[in-house]
Structures are given as C-alpha cells and as structure tokens.
Amino acid sequence: MKPAVSGLEKEFPGKVVARNVDATTRDAKKEIKELGFANHGLVIRSAKGDVLFKQPDHKVKMDEVRKELTSLLK
C-alpha cells in the first residue's frame, strides 16, 4: 500500500480503513471505468460502500483527501 494511503489509518485511528485494490482484475477494471478513472485513483467510501469522494489517476492530492476525511468524520 502506498505510504500516504496507509498513513491515513494512523491519522484517523479507528475511523479509516485503507486498502489497495489490484486494478488489473476484471472486476476492478469495470469499477475503475464506472468511477470515471483512466486506470486508477483514490476513493473514499462509506461503511456501506457508497462513494463519498474520489480523485482520479495522478491527480490525487493527499491534502484534499485529508480535508475531506476530516469533514466527513465530524
């Protein structure tokens, strides 16, 4: 897992579960397309799996991700 992503669990202990998904599997490729990503990205989902926030591909800005998580977790 990328250090910035795995670090989110430490920054938001007990509130965030981070994981990497293999983007080369058939199911992942379908989901990537549905999310509007070219080949990968970052997604914040609710506990039920609803998409709450996403950033595509190489446009992921971790400061924006942290800001969104802080807001969502209030």
Count of helix runs:
3
Termini separation:
26 Å
User: What series of H and E elements makes up the topology?
Assistant: HHEEH
Largest sheet: 2 strands, antiparallel
What's this entry about, in short?
The chain is of the alpha+beta class and 74 residues long. The chain contains three helices and two strands; from the N terminus they run ααββα.
Write the layout of secondary structure elements.
Blueprint (H helix, E strand, L loop, with lengths): L2 H9 L14 H10 L5 E5 L5 E6 L5 H11 L2
Antiparallel strand pairs: 1-2
Please give a structural write-up.
41% of the residues lie in helices and 15% in strands. Strands 1-2 form a two-stranded antiparallel ribbon. It is of the alpha+beta class and 74 residues long.
